[in-house]
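Give me the fold.
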Amino acid sequence: MWTAAEATCQALATDLPGDWDRARSALSGVAGLPPERCWEIKVTESLRQAVDLRAAHPGVRLQVDSAGVGDDCPRQLTGLAVLDGPFAGQPVPAVSAAGGTHVRLEGFFVNVDRILVDGTPIDNGGQQFGPQFGPFVFSAPPATGTSAVRVTVEATPPVSGAAVLVYSDQSPPGPGPTPTAPPTSGPATTPPASAPQSGSTTRLTETQP
């Protein structure tokens, strides 16, 4: 996407047909973006608009207006995703009371300065939560006598929203037991107590399928 952005900006600056061809080709390689990548989606929409306008009006030089007031991509925490442990991928973000589980912030962020659990900043080993635009992952702190905590984010510009992280040492629900066939025994034989006498017979029995 950023390669397409660079090519389109170059085409807007030079207005050369070859540069517009390169911008169009670069944009064709931009695959569908996930909805949480709001900024990249909005940038791609603007790039396509420029290329489509230039194709519809050949010979007309485009002029880029300055950005207006507002933000099409509000920075917001919308949820949490547990990345490891027995609750990884479950709809309800739950972690062990011992802490240490890796949890990812869900939403749209440009940067994250601090992650707060019930209002207290967590220790991330002195490392920044970057890179910018994420993903932003932190280690869940141990439980302190509560079954759920409120997670918020401090950043500049500010990030709104909050999410709840649940502590649980119970196993997550799983599928029921897998049916199995009843055990079967092999052919039943009754060995003789001693070697058969002359004229006697030994009969072996076998279960029918």
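The radius of gyration is 32 Å.
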